[in-house]
Amino acid sequence: MSLSVTTRDAITAEVAKYPYKKTALLPSLKLAQKEKGWLSTETLAEVADLIGLPHSHAIELATFYAMLFTEKVAPVRVEYCLQLPCALVGAEDALAKTAKLLDVQLHGERGTRHGHTKDHLIELHGTVECYGACHRAPMCRVGDDYKENLKTDDDLQRLVADLKTRAAAAKSQAH
Amino acid sequence: MPLDYQPILLPNPGRTTAVALTEYEQRGGYDGLRNALRKKPEDVTTMVKDAGLKGRGGAGFPTGMKWSFVPKGPGPKYLVVNADESEPGTFKDRDLMEIEPHTLIEGIAIGSYAIGCELAFVYIRGEYTVAGDRLRDAVDEAKKAGLLGAPSKLTRADGTPFSLDIVVFLGAGAYICGEETALIESLEGNRAMPRSRPPFPAVAGLYMKPTVVNNVETLANVPYILAKGVDAYKAIGNPPNNTGPKIYCLSGHVKRPGNYELPLGKVTLRQFIEEYGGGTPSGRPVKGVLPAGVSAPIIPAANLDAVLDYDGIKGAGSMLGSASFIVMDDSVDMLWAATRMVEFFRHESCGKCTPCREGTMWLEKTLYRMMEGKGKESDLETLQFVSKQIAGNTLCALGDFATSPVTSSIKHYRDDYLAHLVRIEKKSDKKGDKAAE
Ligand SMILES: Cc1cc2nc3c(=O)[nH]c(=O)nc-3n(C[C@H](O)[C@H](O)[C@H](O)COP(=O)(O)O)c2cc1C
Ligand code: SF4
Ligand code: FES
């Protein structure tokens, strides 16, 4: 399924912004991902064609940048920062408790952990990246949103309730 | 007692909303730009040079000097703002953009005038969507008010209109984009992999045109220099090497983490942690402090009287870098801490050079083995040997950064490593015995 007219127009507008069209590739891939949720081979090709670049350029970027996904991801994506400043003040604990509340089994080694709910609507990650919120740790990102100061059990309950609301919304949208 | 100091860069501590153009102008905003436009561009550069402003992105390179490397003459030149801020423990540029976007825009406008740039880019890390939105809004405000635009309503000293457009560009998640040549590659639509130098960006940077890359905080310092003058700026801090205000990020084991703007060279690390940070929440003593995120050597507790400036932190055996202070109390196992930091570098290595790509992997493997209780005393030598193979042998400084948590923790906290061995050595002795049998 090809991109919507809105996204295609937004991509055309990106191209006009820069002295060289290749600069528009990264923002355009992000626009396409915003609509589709992830970047399939077809979407990558469509974006490259729109800008007038070889498909390989789009693939190169999509496989390099952490925020671009070349595989399907869950509609609700949670990323806990486990880097040192956060880990010093309870990030590991907050991730473990969140996983328990969501009944998610976490896999992976030390700083890098991942798992998902049984219905695949929520994806939970522990990462070693810092998100620039170390003074409000523990923290996680939910999609593009920052959830900070996740200090108490109440904070985590509230987070999980929000995640479930988002998951339900995603589910009803899919139907 | 905290210092009696009126912050300049973040004048409203605790504020969370963006300062709008009217409010910024009420407190003298854009006076610096108007003053700059009355001078010749090269005189603006000289003022920034004389003020002693050093880059706040990490390397501490003198800003005026960097601007002076840009060749004069026709043809496009670019000012690129490094707002990639991905160093663990660093969150100052985020506050600057989210709360004081016009200070940055004014700094960009002055810098652009000085080097002859008419199109500037702000490269913001992809996760900072709020900062991106607020900066875009502020650019629109400034355009509407005629402060920016091609052309703007302002006039240059030579009588021609001042012309500048600012593009806000969001990245897509990669620490290496903070390295200036990788950032340029990313802006050009490529994978963010550092370039070999020469040519330096000042000669051939973005689109192979003369380019200055400056950090957000660096440029946020510029309006004050132009508005109040070189002497007023130098009166803040500890001249000649450490002039001006500095935002210090504080995180880890402190009661009050956050951004603190202070003059360079006026407080010690101990004062900073105790008086500003409120000390450790546990009340336990400080074991060590990282002064530049995870990218510079750990400062042991014995050196807490170091003064917070470029020279002071250097004297304590480390580097001020991004001035992101991560405090660790004496409950921290430094082998665990070093492992977490190395995981970061292994994850973020762009893979272009072998010593960094392979070396960070070996450091991580060795540290994991030690953490699992399977280490040998010779692993300490392995770690140091691998670190030596990486440091100085890579295209960018990420390789060097990756080694400092390891070498500095072995140097100052060898016992933490040995503590993991004692346990293990008994086991491996047994194994050894069995093998010998
Ligand atoms: C691996 C690596 C990451 C870096 N990350 C950043 C960053 O996030 N922000 C930044 O301003 N500088 C960063 N730097 C430093 C830049 O390369 C460059 O020195 C700086 O942007 C210059 O600006 P300044 O002179 O105003 O400090 C990084 C350097 C390296 C080697
Ligand atoms: S040192 Fe590491 S991050 Fe830097 S260019 Fe080499 S591989 Fe890439
Ligand atoms: S270390 Fe977790 S947000 Fe910075």
Poorly predicted regions of chain B:
428-437
Distance between the termini of chain B: 67 Å
Tell me the name of the CATH class of the largest domain in chain A.
Answer: Alpha Beta
Which CATH class of the largest domain in chain B is shown?
A: Alpha Beta
Strand order in the largest sheet of chain B: 8-7-11-9-10
CATH structural fold name of the largest domain in chain B: Rossmann fold
Per DSSP E runs of 2 or more residues, the count of β-strands of chain B stands at: 11
Average pLDDT, all residues of chain A = 96
> How many domain units of chain B?
3
What's the name of the CATH homologous superfamily of the largest domain in chain A? Glutaredoxin
Describe the SSE topology.
The complex is a heterodimer of chains A (175) and B (437).
Chain A: H1 5-17, H2 25-36, H3 41-51, H4 55-62, E1 76-81, H5 84-88, H6 91-102, E2 113-116, E3 122-127, E4 140-142, E5 145-147, H7 153-174
Parallel strand pairs in A: 1-3
Antiparallel strand pairs in A: 1-4, 2-3, 4-5
Helix pairs in contact in A: 1-2, 2-3, 3-4, 6-7
Chain B: H1 21-26, H2 31-37, H3 41-51, H4 63-68, E1 78-83, H5 92-99, H6 101-115, E2 119-124, H7 129-144, E3 165-170, H8 180-187, E4 211-215, H9 216-228, H10 230-234, E5 237-238, E6 242-243, E7 245-252, E8 258-263, H11 269-276, E9 286-290, E10 299-300, H12 310-315, E11 324-329, H13 334-348, H14 354-371, H15 378-390, H16 398-412, H17 414-436
Parallel strand pairs in B: 1-2, 1-4, 2-3, 7-11
Antiparallel strand pairs in B: 5-6, 7-8, 9-10, 9-11
